[in-house]
UniProtKB/TrEMBL annotation:
<dbReference type="GO" id="GO:0004053">
    <property type="term" value="F:arginase activity"/>
</dbReference>
<comment type="similarity">
    <text>Belongs to the arginase family.</text>
</comment>
<feature type="region of interest" description="Disordered">
    <location>
        <begin position="73"/>
        <end position="96"/>
    </location>
</feature>
<dbReference type="Pfam" id="PF00491">
    <property type="entry name" value="Arginase"/>
</dbReference>
<dbReference type="InterPro" id="IPR006035">
    <property type="entry name" value="Ureohydrolase"/>
</dbReference>
<dbReference type="GO" id="GO:0005739">
    <property type="term" value="C:mitochondrion"/>
</dbReference>
<protein>
    <recommendedName>
        <fullName>Arginase-2, mitochondrial</fullName>
    </recommendedName>
</protein>
<dbReference type="InterPro" id="IPR023696">
    <property type="entry name" value="Ureohydrolase_dom_sf"/>
</dbReference>
<dbReference type="GO" id="GO:0030145">
    <property type="term" value="F:manganese ion binding"/>
</dbReference>
């Protein structure tokens, strides 16, 4: 539950649940409208709470439009080669 919203819901969706739902909605390609969330900075006790709430709102909204969650990425200014013994298989996958 994020503090800088006017309609907090105890037991509501977690961040991961919200992201999963919006990713799946995007995957249907049927999204035709989006009701943006309410963020009210005056309800937060600190600037950190406002930033956390805004960050969550931006992430969930962007996910609705197709932005995917990011994991750990390697620096890809030089692509790894199969002969590089110190690079694991998961590190060879580069997200473009």
């Amino acid at each position: 539950m994020h503090p800088a919203t006017g309609t907090p819901v105890a037991g509501g969706l977690t961040y991961c649940e919200g992201m999963y739902i919006t990713e799946e909605i995007h995957n249907t390609r049927l999204l035709s409208a989006l009701d943006l969330v309410e963020v009210n900075p005056r309800l937060a006790a600190s600037e950190e709470e406002v930033k956390a709430t805004v960050s969550l709102a931006v992430d969930v909204t962007a996910s609705s439009f197709g932005q995917t969650r990011e994991g750990g990425h390697i620096v890809y200014d030089q692509l790894p080669t199969p002969s590089s013994p110190d690079i694991s298989e998961s590190e060879e996958r580069v997200r473009i």
